[in-house]
Amino acid sequence: MAREPPTRKFTDMQTVPVTRQHLLGSVIAVPPLARNADYSLNREANRAVIRHIEAGGVTTFLYGGNANFYHIRLSEFGSALDLLAAEAGAESLMIPSVGPCYGTMMDQAAILQQHEFPTVMVLPMQGVLSDDGVATGFRHFVEAFGRTSVLYLKDEAYLRPATAARLVKDGLVSFIKYAIVRENPSHDAYLTELLDLIGGDAIVSGIGEQPAIVHVRDFGLTGYTSGCVCIAPALSRRMLLAIQEGAWEEAETIREQFRPLEDLRNAIHPIRVLHEAVALAGIADTGELLPLMSRVGEAHRPSIATAAKALLGC
């Protein structure tokens, strides 16, 4: 895959290709993207979120669903990339997202050529797709981008395990974010089949702290992504280290501390609750959510504030 030199150069953020060591070395934070009342990007608030996460020892950032990149304007995409690159700390790896529509991601590939992000995540489309079509679209994007990209598996209907494995074996995937929700994460035939095909070195658990222990310990995934890490980064990092050390009792104790806020995210809406929680915890004013999303109602704010502040104090 040919890669054109970027026309913009930012020297702060990490620009080396993503390796397994990146996945082992940090929880992958999935932050919200702060905006003003007019939906414009709020640089100061986004800087505050990034600095808070970095201060807790977390250095990998994935701006995807929680940042509502699903609905970002193409005309704003370049400005959002500029912001993330400029505000990243020297040790931080920033991963933006593209899509989910084929036409959008292909236009975004041209904008990304002006930047040094070593990888991006392709957001999964829902409904209007086919297995082979998704694989072809992912392949086209990676070829246009010129760099391997993150494959986001969120639904069994999106890609068959064999198709996902073929993309990995063809050298198109930097890593897989595995986020298919199960009532019992210990029983997952899809994940088992995928692991039989490619192993777990390039797969991370993509549903936060709650299934992370099972995914890493029992299935052999390499790490995990988290939204609530944006509230308590040092605590989430301690959980990752406990998992890696096999300190399962400690990891389980920490996991339970994330449960109240995660339960609210599951009951109301994971993206909308996290967006509000970061603000209500006093980390930064995350502001408005881009339509077609909306902020949670006033009735939910007291419970979110209680859970977010308690987690921040852990």
Structure summary:
The chain is of the alpha/beta class and 314 residues long. It contains twelve helices and nine strands. β8, α8 and β9 form a beta-alpha-beta unit.
Main traits of this protein?
alpha/beta, TIM Barrel, 44% helix, globular
SSE layout and pairings?
Layout: H1 20-25, E1 28-29, H2 43-55, E2 60-62, H3 74-87, E3 93-95, E4 97-98, H4 102-112, E5 121-122, H5 131-145, E6 149-153, H6 161-169, E7 173-178, H7 189-198, E8 203-205, H8 212-217, E9 223-226, H9 233-244, H10 248-267, H11 270-280, H12 301-312
Parallel strand pairs: 1-2, 1-9, 2-3, 4-5, 5-6, 6-7, 7-8, 8-9
Helix pairs in contact: 3-4, 4-5, 6-7, 9-10, 10-11, 10-12, 11-12
Major sheet summary line: 9 strands, parallel
Widest sheet, order of strands: 3-2-1-9-8-7-6-5-4
Number of helices: 12
Q: Helix and strand string, N-terminal first?
A: HEHEHEEHEHEHEHEHEHHHH
What is the CATH T-level topology of the domain at 20-234? TIM Barrel
| Percentage of residues in helical conformation | 40-55%
**Principal-axis shape:** globular
Spans of 5+ residues with little confidence (pLDDT < 50)?
A: 2-11
Number of strands: 9
Quaternary status of these chains?
single chain
| CATH architecture level-2 label of the domain at 20-234 | Alpha-Beta Barrel
The Cα radius of gyration reads 18 Å
CATH homologous superfamily of the domain at 20-234?
Aldolase class I
Q: Estimate the strand proportion.
A: 5-15%
Mind telling me the CATH class of the domain at 20-234? Alpha Beta
